[in-house]
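Hey L., structure's done. Input below.
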Amino acid sequence: MEKRPLPVSNAIELRRRNHELSILNAIASALNSSVELDQALQTGLAQVAELLGLHTGWLWLINEETGKTYLAASQNLPPALQNNPRRMKGVCHCLDTYLEGDLEGAANVNVLTCSRLSGLVDGTDGLRYHASIPLYARGKKMGVLNVASTDWRELSPDDLRLLYTIGDLLSIAIERSRLFARSAQISIVEERNRLAREIHDTLAQGFTGIILQLEGAEQVLSQESYAELAGAALEHIDKARSLARNSLQEARRSVWNLLPGPLERDTLDGAIYEAVKELGTESDVEAGFACTGDPVPLSVEAQTCLLRVAQEALANARKHAGARHVDVTLAYETGGVALTIRDDGQGFDPTAPRPAGQGGGFGLIGMRERCQLANGVFTLESAPGQGTVVHVFLWLRKPLPLGED
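Output:
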C-alpha cells in the first residue's frame, strides 16, 4: 500500500506536539533531579527559561506555616529587581489576584503589566510584562510562576496550555519535596523517641546511681572522724555531682534538638565567653575571647555546633596540649560565621594515627562531623611543638537571590 505524506497542517501539529513533549520531559527530569525543594525549583526554572526562549522568570510559593508568599526561585532578574530586594517582597497585582482566587483562565494569566516594575525606567532590561501561571496541588494553592521576555507577545492558547502543564509539573515537584521533608522529619522524631527511651533506661539510671553514690560518700565524709579529709573531698564530690546532673540534662536536650543549656541562658558569644572564662578560672591557662562583626540569627544546629566545637577545643587545649595561652575568636562575616581557637600547646601531627579519646580520636571526628552537618567546614592546623589552630566556618543557609518576607 502506498504511504501518503501527512497533510502539511498535521505535520506541523505533530512537530509542535513532539517539541512540547521534549520540553516537558526535560523540565520533569530537572525537577526530579533533587528532592531538595530549593535546588529542584531553581533547576526547573532555569530549564523553563531556556527551553521556552524566555529571558526571566520567578516563582512565588506560599509558606505552609505562615500563609505568606515568598520568592522561592528566580532566573535572570533585571537589575531593578535584583538590586532592590524590597521590590520583590510583599504582594503585587498577580499575587493579590491569585490569593483572591481569580487568577484562572487565559484572560488573567496572559500578558500582565508587572506592578513591581511600575514607574521604573532604568534597570528593567526592557521588561514590562509577564505571564502568571497559578500553581495548585489537589486543589490547594501553592504559588505563582511568572515568566517574562523582552519581546513579549500575547500568548497563544497552545503556549498557555504548555505553561499550565509546566505549572502542574512544578506543583507536583513542590508537593513531593514537602512530603519528603515531612517523612524525614517523622523519621527524626521516631529516632529521637528511641534515643530518649535508651537514655531513660541506661544513661539516666547510671547517672542517678552515680549521684546517689556521691551523696552517700558525702554523708560518710561529713562524720567527725573524717573531718580533716572532708573539706577538699566534699568539694570534688560536689563538682562530680553537678557534672553528672548537667551531663544527663544535656544528653536529653541533644536528643530533642534543643539549645544546650548555656545557649538558653545566654547568647552564642556569651556562652562561648563563659566557656573560655571557665578554662581560665579552673586552670593556669591564660584564655582570651573576642567577638567581631554584627551578630545574625543562627539555627539551633549552627549555634550548638559552634559552642560544642569551642568546648571540645578548649578541653583539648587544657588536657592534651599543655597550653599556656588560648585565644578564641567568633567572627560574623559576610555570608557566614567563623570560629577560631588558637593555643600555644605542644601540638601534634594531624596525619598521624591517634588513639580515640586522646585529643585526636572521637573529639576531632565529632567536631568535623558537626561542622559538615551544620553546612560548614572544619580545619585544623598543628605541628609538634607549634601549637594548634582549630577553625570553623559555617555558611549561613544560602537564600535564593531574594528571601522571604
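Confidence is low (pLDDT under 50) at residues 356-361, 398-405. The domain at 8-184 is CATH 3.30.450.40 (Beta-Lactamase).

-- N.
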